[in-house]
Design a protein that fits this description.
The protein is 55% helix and 3% strand. By secondary structure, the chain is mainly α. It has a domain of 55 residues: Arc Repressor Mutant, subunit A, CATH 1.10.10. A three-stranded antiparallel β-sheet has the order 1-3-2. Helix 1 crosses helix 11, helix 5 packs across helix 6 and helix 14 packs across helix 15. The longest helix has 17 residues. It is globular and about 65 Å long. The relative contact order is 0.11.
Length: 291
């Protein structure tokens, strides 16, 4: 089908797009890949300074690969979900070993990289190489679900129907498809937000089925309960990693267990971090891996 939304959305994007470093004319495919991995489940405001520091330190995969996994985890800081740091280091190693330090431009090769799934591969192919690719993140899925299906939010996991719709609306010409992907994603981030949609500012409001139906509530609300962060195992894991990042030497396990308020939870955090490869045992102590 012809895409009736492309032209008004492109005009809106031209006037409202954020000036982000991974969109700059001098961006590199490596910089785009780093941004996409950092942006997984993390807001742009937290990612941007971390991305700038990361790219200043490691502007190409070779530098990160040589630095080692421990340095990657240290540099990741408090971005959260630190397995992404380990995957990014593994990705850099694979790029050096298999591609001579060059990020490949096709989705098949990109998906072979550690930690790179369908979305990230499509996003890098589109945003770094200007290729036509079906990019479907939470923002794009939400916009298209509201616009065409008339529902508040998409299903908790992307469906075949959502992907088919995204593919159907994707412009045929490569440059136009990249612009469309960028614009829909930006609309979802700035206007068609999950919690407080600013429909009065939306360039597609006149065509939006969800708005026309009176903005019905989320049909999947009971499946979207989010566990509070305070007191969780995830917070305990973060505290353990913070201790190890700040120490040049292995930290005795007893010191780790004593530093957290709940000893049993601290022990569980250590075990899961070891299982994930984020921490290694050194006798009766633990440390960041020395990859």
């Amino acid at each position: 089908m012809a895409n009736p939304y492309a032209r008004p959305l492109a005009a809106w994007y031209e006037a409202n797009a954020r000036d982000l470093p991974w969109r700059a004319p001098d961006r590199t495919p490596w910089g785009v890949l780093v941004s996409e991995i950092m942006l997984q489940q993390t807001p742009v405001g937290r990612v941007e300074p971390a991305w700038r520091a990361w790219m200043q330190r490691w502007p190409a995969p070779e530098g990160l690969a040589a630095a080692g996994s421990a340095e990657a985890i240290r540099a990741w800081g408090r971005l959260g979900y630190p397995r992404r740091a380990l995957r990014l280091w593994e990705c850099a190693v694979h790029l050096v070993d298999a591609f001579g330090g060059v990020v490949p431009g096709d989705e098949v090769s990109l998906r072979a990289l550690p930690g790179v799934g369908a979305y990230t591969a499509a996003a890098v192919a589109s945003f770094a190489f200007g290729r036509r690719a079906v990019v479907l993140d939470v923002n794009i899925a939400r916009v298209l679900t509201r616009l065409v299906a008339g529902q508040a939010l998409p299903a908790p996991s992307s469906s075949v129907v959502e992907r088919a719709l995204a593919a159907e609306l994707l412009p045929r010409e490569a440059a136009a498809s990249v612009r469309w992907n960028q614009a829909v994603m930006e609309l979802g981030a700035l206007v068609c937000r999950a919690g407080a949609a600013a429909c009065e500012a939306c360039p597609l409001a006149g065509s939006c089925r969800w708005l026309r139906l009176g903005k019905p509530e989320d049909v999947h609300a009971d499946r979207r309960r989010v566990q509070p962060y305070e007191g969780t195992d995830r917070q305990a894991r973060g505290r353990v990693l913070a201790m190890l990042r700040s120490s040049a030497d292995p930290v005795p396990v007893g010191d780790v267990l004593s530093a957290l308020p709940r000893r049993e939870q601290a022990a569980r955090a250590v075990e899961t971090l070891v299982a994930d490869g984020l921490v290694v045992r050194v006798g009766d102590a633990v440390a960041l891996p020395n990859g």
